[in-house]
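Exercise 7. Given the encoded structure of a 147-residue chain, write a plausible sequence.
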């Protein structure tokens, strides 16, 4: 005879965000890789495309980060964008409005990813609590096959 048992024990916790240094290391490595790949595939001098790609990276990293990691993530992505995606490569420059806009876009993408993750985790936790935990043991007196 087969007995069905629940594998879960209790309510599942909300996932904890990754450590900030880990997120920053991923931002540095990912930004370097993406900017190098873009420079190889489409050439240097396409900062708008690089901004979009790095904003997507920042949003993705924000999904598993603390809110406190957002400014550092945005700055690290901006450093690779400014240093290697616009000519002359390897030179950091500051063009007031342009770089402020880039930093704002990258920060907004990171904060958007973090906020989205928190909302989705809170919604999932609320549904688990509201439905009774979701990991309740099966009722031994009710066979779901005999309906």
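Solution.
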């Amino acid at each position: 005879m087969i007995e069905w048992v629940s594998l879960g024990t209790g309510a599942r916790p909300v996932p904890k965000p990754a450590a900030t240094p880990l997120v920053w290391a991923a931002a540095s490595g990912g930004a370097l890789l993406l900017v190098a790949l873009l420079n190889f595939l489409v050439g240097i001098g396409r900062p708008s495309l690089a901004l979009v790609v790095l904003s997507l990276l920042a949003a993705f990293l924000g999904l598993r980060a603390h809110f406190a990691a957002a400014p550092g993530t945005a700055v690290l992505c901006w450093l690779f964008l400014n240093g290697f995606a616009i000519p002359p490569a390897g030179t950091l420059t500051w063009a007031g409005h342009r770089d402020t806009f880039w930093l704002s876009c990258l920060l907004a993408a990171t904060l958007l990813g973090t906020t989205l993750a928190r909302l989705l985790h809170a919604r999932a936790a609320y549904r688990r609590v509201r439905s009774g935990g979701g990991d309740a043991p099966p009722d031994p007196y009710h066979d779901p096959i005999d309906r």
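Remark. The helical segments are 20-41, 47-62, 70-84, 96-130. Students should compare their own answers with the one above.
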